[in-house]
Amino acid sequence: MSYKSQRHLKPSHMVTAVLIATGIGFAGTVQASQNLRFAHVYETSEPFHQWALWAAEEINERTDGRYSINVHPASSLGNEEAINEGLTLGTVDIIYTGAQFAGHAYGPIGIAGAPYMFRDFDHWQAYAESDLFEEIAAGFEEATGNVPIALNYYGERHVTANEPINVPEDMERLRIRVPGAPLYMMFPRAAGANPTPIAFDETYLALQQGVVDAQENPLPAIRAMAFHEVQEYINLTGHVTDSLITIVSGSLWDQLSEEDREIFREVFQEAAENNTADIVQAEEELVAWFEEQGNTVNEVDREPFREITVPYHLGDDANWDEETYERLQAIGQ
User: Fold this and answer.
1) Which residues pair with 141 in a beta bridge?
2) Thinking of the domain 15-330, which architecture would CATH place it in?
3) Is the pTM of this model over 0.70?
4) What is the mean pLDDT of each run of 10 residues along the chain (333 residues)?
């Protein structure tokens, strides 16, 4: 079933980031709850955080209090590189991370973050539900010990700047902020721009001070981080149909019973479906909202940008083989 047609749940009430630390055991005795850390880099106003809180509460309830989850938003436990490393170090138990960052540890999983890899949202959706994604997730688990359990839609990434961008030539020598993963540099380099890795929570200041001329993110992230306040044009390049992966550390996963593993999978998959639905809705509504704020939302013919980028899909930066690439491209055809 498509995420668009899934039942769109809403949290029944606001929950705190710290849940009850004890529960009642089956025999009626007080049972200590295992406290877990869920880390991400997104703002508390974003759906990803709200559904992380919901998932924390659901897991606490469905496991009869055996697990309580503290959700740490907005890079409070470190940037994306740090929280990925934290899965292995044991400093975090659950994270949201971009496919490109997960690709540092296991190259093929990064394919979902390559520019113009997907034709559209429906292609992304078909991949999220595919055997190919399950196989790649299993490969990641085998390589790292950590377990991807859900794929969340992050949105189409667009270029913001203080000038319109209509053709690739408009990006030549443009200093554009990108996240610190190599695949994010593929599209700017194809267009002749100068990609500059800067942490997500440092990007507003970098734009404001002129350290960079532009940045790229989905519309909901642009609003949440207020990038529209320091960038006049939102150019709808749609160059990455992006994902966040929910990953559980191997050390936690190894401790879980089969019953609890199924609870974690079900809860985080449901949260991913609702994250996806919220982002799809926000993308539909935000063009008008940005125009109301005085921004210019620039419709772009994406085909010239796609044409210069696709040759890089099997180039030196590709950490997947041609068979994987062809299987992904065939999905939904």
Assistant:
1) none
2) 3-Layer(aba) Sandwich (3.40)
3) yes
4) 41 40 39 91 97 98 98 97 96 97 96 97 98 98 98 98 98 97 95 97 98 98 98 98 98 98 98 98 98 98 98 95 98 91
